[in-house]
Amino acid sequence: MRIIGGEWKRSKLPLPRSVDLRPTPDRVRETLFNWLGQDLSGWHCVDAFAGTGALGFEAASRGAAKVLLCDANSVCIEAMAKSQTKLGANQLRLLRGDGLATLRQQAPQSLDLVFLDPPYDFAHYPLALAAAAACIKPTGQIYLEAAKAWSADELGALGLRVARHLKAGAVHAHLLQPTA
Q1: Over the stretch 83-95, which tens digit does the pLDDT of each residue have?
Q2: Which contacts of 76-84 are long-range, i.e. CB under 8 A and separated by 24 or more positions?
Q3: The domain containing residue 137 runs over which residues?
Q4: Confidence of residue 35 (pLDDT cuts 50, 70, 90)
Q5: What is the CATH number of the domain that holds 42?
Q6: Residue 9 placed within a domain
Q7: Is residue 2 in a domain?
Q8: Cβ burial, residue 110 (10 Å; 0-12/13-18/19+)
Q9: Does residue 61 lie in a domain region?
Q10: Inside any domain, residue 168
Q11: How far is 129 from 137, CA to CA, in rounded Å?
Q12: What CA–CA distance (Å, rounded) separates 166 from 44?
């Protein structure tokens, strides 16, 4: 897996082999960062279920000032730590823990961007979306990757709306914004 843009373009990120991961495909990441813009200078981001860390590394590569990468798996954290050291990515902070709990611990309206790409069997999407919605700024955004397209009614109940949507294979990529 490679970083596709920014300062570390073409840098490789290792894929931990002993972990069942489904990294966000290059095409989807490229589309996401076209939606967001290539310059994320000064942004504060959280990748709550980081896995390989590709989304967070992409944000940092494009100028994000602070990126918190959280994952429950120590093998993933170790792989991300090696990449962080190799790239000199001082704006990254790694945390081994629960992504939902990490979102709940963020200050209200403190983040520009939250990445939500949880494991396949994740049962708490509404809770994660509510926690993410509480910690993004009024101009903030949430990237949601899921096996289904989320409806306007489901998201509206959480104070969110779909700004962009893409279906790539079995993956639905959503860029969400606050409704107010």
Answers
A1: 999 999 999 999 9
A2: 76/16, 76/19, 76/21, 76/50, 76/51, 76/52, 78/16, 79/13, 79/14, 79/15, 79/16, 79/52, 79/53, 80/13, 80/50, 80/52, 80/53, 82/14, 83/11, 83/13, 83/14, 83/53, 83/57
A3: 28-178
A4: very high
A5: 3.40.50.150
A6: no
A7: no
A8: middle
A9: yes
A10: yes
A11: 14
A12: 24
User: What pLDDT digit, counting tens, does each position of 56-106 carry?
Assistant: 999 999 999 999 999 999 999 999 999 999 999 999 999 999 999 999 999
Q: Which of 74, 92, 72 is nearest to 84 (CA)?
A: 92
Helix, strand, coil proportions of the chain in percent (round to 5)? 30, 30, 40
- Comparing CA positions, the residue from 31, 5, 27 lying closest to residue 164 is 31
Buried b (16+ CB within 10 A) or exposed e, 137-166: eeebbbbbbbeeebeeeebeebebebebeb
The pair of three-digit structure tokens given for residue 65, joined into one six-digit string: 């000032």
pTM, full prediction:
0.93
Q: Do the beta carbons of residue 121 and residue 147 sit within 8 Å?
A: no
How many domains does the chain divide into?
1
Query: Sign of torsion, CA 55 59 115 48?
Result: positive
Query: Whole-angstrom Cα distance, residue 115 to residue 44?
Result: 11
